[in-house]
Amino acid sequence: MIKGKFIDNLPKVYGIYTGGFIGFIILMAIGEQMGMTAKAIGVAFVAFTIFIYALIGYLSRTAQADAYYVAGRQVPTVFNGMATAADWMSGASFVAMAGGIYFKGYGYMALLVGWTGGYILVATLLAPYLRKFGCYTVPDFIGTRYGGNLARLLAVIVLTVASFTYVTAQINATGTIAAVALDIDFKYAVYVGLISILLCSMLGGMRAVTWTQVAQYIVLIIAYLLPVFWISNKMGAGFFPHFMLADEVARIGELEQQFGFIKNSAADLATVPKGLAGITKAHAAVNATPWAFISLALAMMMGTASLPHVMMRYFTTPSVKAARKSVGWSLFFIFLLYSSAPMLATLSKLSLIDPTLSTGIIGKSFAEVQSIDWFQNWNQANLMFISDFNGNGTLELNEFFMGGKAVVLATPEIAGLPYVISGLVAAGGMAAAMSTADGLILAIANAISHDVYYKMIDPKAETAKRLLVARVLLVIIGFAGATIAAMEIQGILGSVIWAFDFAMSGLFFPLVLGVWWKRANREGAIAGMALGLASSIWYLVWVRTGGSGFLGLTQLTFGIFGAGVSLIAMVVVSLMTQEPDKATQKMVDEVRVPSGRTVTGK
Amino acid sequence: MSNAQKHWEKSRSLLWITLIIWAIFSMGIFLFGAEMNEVTGPFGYPWTYWFTCQGSLGIFVILIFWFANRQEKIDEEFGFNERGDD
């Protein structure tokens, strides 16, 4: 059936894979009709998909440095786009994004704009040039462009701080889903998640991660879109929700007027379980100041262009031209999910609060709501809560609380979809969190093995030894991440946003100016990275410990301050010290020309 | 001016055009978020709401492909095009 080179057969291979996955969904649906329990379906979905990823990971094993670090630089644009989309869309995008929109409305939408707009910066300022450079890792670019071990080491440090903050959130997400789907304790589920993640990346490095990420993208996009379309059709809201939910959005606005946003007293709120929230913000009204919105969007955009696990995906394309196009495809595949999240939030909210719908619970009596099956399930899972604050016996809008994750995880059940969809959603969430975790762990391990071990400690190391070190680091970093995830310090989304701020503080300007400003030199880059990261950490600690902050920069947008410091430090120090030597300037000229061999000569 | 320098000049002006469009749809329009939301826009959604859900996001996708094509044309013009891939 499959002849010739694997790369030439990609559409066929993934076509068969997608068909097989849809077949599996149908099989599970039949199983459900024949009396398969909800738990068995959940386990089957999660276990089956993980098994497939592990199989792909095993088949992609390699002993070559080029394949391990950059997938042999032969990943076609569209497939690299899918892999990047999976790499990019984390457990947070999948599980928490619709919930964030549901609860916070407009103020939260800045993240959607930021997490997509950032790709313009990637496509125009960085990806094609870094591809031309021909490096293995992002610190490899910094180290070669500016020269010297200190610059390289600082880049590794910024990368590690940012990516590690991010990866604990992902392992946490895999743990949460594994805990629910497999019905095991979270403390152990975290390690189940970790082992699945390592199975995908350990043997084949970037090559294995690329092909599993494509497979994971297919699972996660089916798992996200199918319920959105199904629910919309079932509610009669429109067969293509993206273009047809204007009436529903308006109806939510009406209901909000009718119910009003009643503020709960602090004593009442203290009885609500941690992590759950009520609807306190208007769904589609503008509820944030322009600067609050713009600063959050800007921070996320600059962070996007500084996160090494995304950037390194564009090192795997066959050419500079392909790298540019591939950014476009990445954003297209991301757009498919991001544009659906607000639709899901709308459908979810309306089905819960509209008293004229059979699924609506606001205005019903407490006894009635408490007798609903799905309410009992999600109440037990600690994701839903009701309390009769005013003692009138009927549920009011301000008496209903839900966890952010419930919007994605519980809406199919609330809308009365078969359980097979809930199983599918669990598999999708797992795919999203695993693919991002894989990319991040690989980015850290590759930077340490390539830039610290090979380039600084033992430049004569043989390939076999280098790849062994890379794999050992992968396992160590994974376990460190899982151990911290098991302690549950920050919510999934909080730590994700911090990662963007750290990355932009330390890396944005050293990367961009490395290509766009020939005069930028080693001393400037060192100052930019060190002061940028240090000032951002200082600002975060200051704001977290009760500091007032300035310019309206919060603990979500502190990266703007860090990046500002980084820019000033880099420009001032560069101008005060000698301009880079002729060889470096020639290197920059070469980076700017798209054709020809890579700068590093590989 | 050498060929490479001319190529870089042209690439740089394309960059600026792209970044200006980017800045308008990622930040500029949201200066008027509250006012814009009063007006009904595409598919019956309020304008600001539509931009945050679909509009800006979709424009970014189109913008990248447009930029990539323009840049390829510039590369070809100066003989820097690459062969054997797509």
Notes on the structure:
Chain A has helices spanning 10-33, 38-59, 65-70, 77-88, 91-104, 106-133, 138-146, 149-182, 186-201, 205-235, 241-244, 246-259, 266-269, 290-304, 308-311, 320-338, 341-353, 366-370, 373-380, 406-414, 419-457, 463-486, 492-516, 522-544, 558-576, 582-591, and strands at 276-277, 384-386, 400-403. By secondary structure, chain A is an all-alpha fold. Chain A starts with 9 loop residues before the first helix and ends in an 11-residue tail after the last helix. Chain B has one domain (3-77). Helix content of chain B is 69%, strand content 0%. Chain B has 3 helices and no strands. Chain B has helices spanning 3-26, 33-36, 47-77. The longest helix of chain B has 31 residues, at 47-77. Chain B starts with a helix and ends in a 9-residue tail after the last helix. In chain B, 40% of the residues are buried. The model of chain B has no long low-confidence stretch (mean pLDDT 90). Chains A and B meet through helix 6, helix 11, helix 12, helix 14 and helix 16 of A and helix 1 and helix 3 of B.
Shape of chain A: globular
Helical content of chain A stands at: over 70%
Looking at this structure, what is the CATH superfamily of one domain in chain A? Answer: Sodium/glucose cotransporter
Number of domains of chain B: 1
For the biggest sheet of chain B, the summary is:
none
The CATH topology label of one domain in chain A is: Sodium/glucose cotransporter
**Separation, N- and C-terminal Cα atoms of chain A:** 34 Å
Tell me the Rg of chain B in angstroms.
Answer: 18 Å
Main sheet makeup of chain A: 3 strands, antiparallel
Q: Strand order of the main beta sheet of chain A, please? A: 1-3-2
Strand content of chain A: under 5%
- Separation, N- and C-terminal Cα atoms of chain B: 30 Å
How confident overall, as mean pLDDT of chain A?
Answer: 88
Structural classification of chain B: mainly alpha
Q: Return the string of H and E elements of chain B.
A: HHH
